[in-house]
Amino acid sequence: MFEPELTGLERSRADRLAELARDVVGAAFLRGDFVLSSGARSSYYFDKYLFETKPAILRRLGAFLAELIPPQTDRIAGPELGAVALASAVSLETGLPFVIVKKEAKGYGTSKLVEGELYPGEKVVVVEDVVSTAAQAIRAAQQLTRAGAQVLTILAVIDREQGGAENISAAGYQFRPLFGKADMDL
Amino acid sequence: MNANAAMTAADSGEVPALLEAGGLSWTQPAADGGPVDPTGLSKYSALSDPDGAERLGLAVAERVRGRGANVVVIWEEPEDAVLAHIVARELGVRTVRTWNEEGLVGHAGTLPDTPRALLLADAFRDVEPLLAMKAFVEQQGGSVVAAGVLVTTGAEDEAGLELVGLQALPRESRSD
């Protein structure tokens, strides 16, 4: 298969991305017998907090995810809780404002599902941390859609490749992960 | 209360009224004649009708009695904890609460040795919590004896679980 020769700049970017993947794995990849909320059993788990709480990793994730933001985007969205730090990082990188999408509206207080400013018709990009079946990312996208926003795409740091991409597509949204399993060299 | 001697809510046909008193209702977003969307089910709240919750809980307990459950397992919802308390009390077993903890199944409470679990909710609006609870129980060396609900939605079939329900989700709207 023909592979175009990379320029120095492109090679540098690819190297930096690969280095980031290694750092994410080094920080957050755990082995064990895990029960995922999807009901699947897994011999490994990414503890997203272990990479999202390290500024040296979070800053680079923000920069690489920002590259995937379509130019017409009005706002970033981060599903609570883990992806809020990512949404913040992308927001700081791009200068775009962001909203926090809650898992569920409480029956008390403001009962809001989307925290922050969101206006009907705005074009929004959802930023997620780790996608397995993508249930939470899809739920967040649907909540934003119901709130009148247009969800341009769902971004994720890691796609565990357990049906998430297919589920997102079936739900009518686009999906772009930063890393798949092959990129993580698991 | 000794439920064995009492006529349960299910026997007396009062389930629909008790569900309504507890705020469980369903709406049909589109008048297409299709099945009611289970995600549109509002949550049953025992707090709204304590006496009704007692009667519904007794009815579920009577239906599952004899299946050998030694623990009641619920998912996330505090409203289900009240229902679970009634059912577990009648069965003489404990309750374990589970939830989605950032992609993993978290739990509070201790499963018995060799758990035989009754998965309980007012209704399962999608299959994922059922699969999560089932996988959790199985990881702990146990099994699921049944899914117990007030209103069946079909999610239980998707999960391949035996079902004990008081009422099926109707095909027609009962919206206001």
Characterize the structure shown:
The complex is a heterodimer of chains A (186) and B (176). Chain A is α/β, with parallel strands linked by helices and 186 residues long. In chain A, 40% of the residues lie in helices and 26% in strands. Chain A contains 7 helices and 8 strands. Chain A has a 6-stranded mixed β-sheet, sandwiched between helices. In chain A, β3 (75-79), α4 (82-94) and β4 (98-101) form a beta-alpha-beta unit. The two termini of chain A are 24 Å apart. The model of chain A has no long low-confidence stretch (mean pLDDT 92). The longest helix of chain B has 15 residues, at 50-64. The N and C termini of chain B lie far apart (35 Å). Classes of the chains: A alpha/beta (186), B alpha/beta (176). The interface between A and B is medium-sized, with 19 and 15 residues.
Write the layout of secondary structure elements.
The complex is a heterodimer of chains A (186) and B (176).
Chain A: H1 8-28, E1 29-35, E2 41-46, H2 48-52, H3 55-67, E3 75-79, H4 82-94, E4 98-101, E5 114-115, E6 123-131, H5 135-146, E7 150-159, H6 164-170, E8 175-179, H7 181-184
Parallel strand pairs in A: 3-4, 3-6, 6-7, 7-8
Antiparallel strand pairs in A: 1-2, 4-5
Helix pairs in contact in A: 1-3, 3-4
Chain B: H1 9-12, H2 15-21, H3 50-64, E1 71-75, H4 78-91, E2 94-101, E3 104-108, E4 116-121, H5 128-139, E5 143-152, H6 155-158, E6 163-168
Parallel strand pairs in B: 1-2, 1-4, 4-5, 5-6
Antiparallel strand pairs in B: 2-3
Helix pairs in contact in B: 2-3, 3-4
Short overview:
By secondary structure, chain A is α/β, with parallel strands linked by helices.
The overall strand count of chain B is: 6
Which runs of chain B of at least 5 residues are low in confidence (pLDDT < 50)?
A: 1-5
> How would a crystallographer describe the biggest sheet of chain A?
6 strands, mixed
Average per-residue pLDDT of chain B, rounded, comes to 84
Number of helices of chain A: 7
Form type of chain A: globular
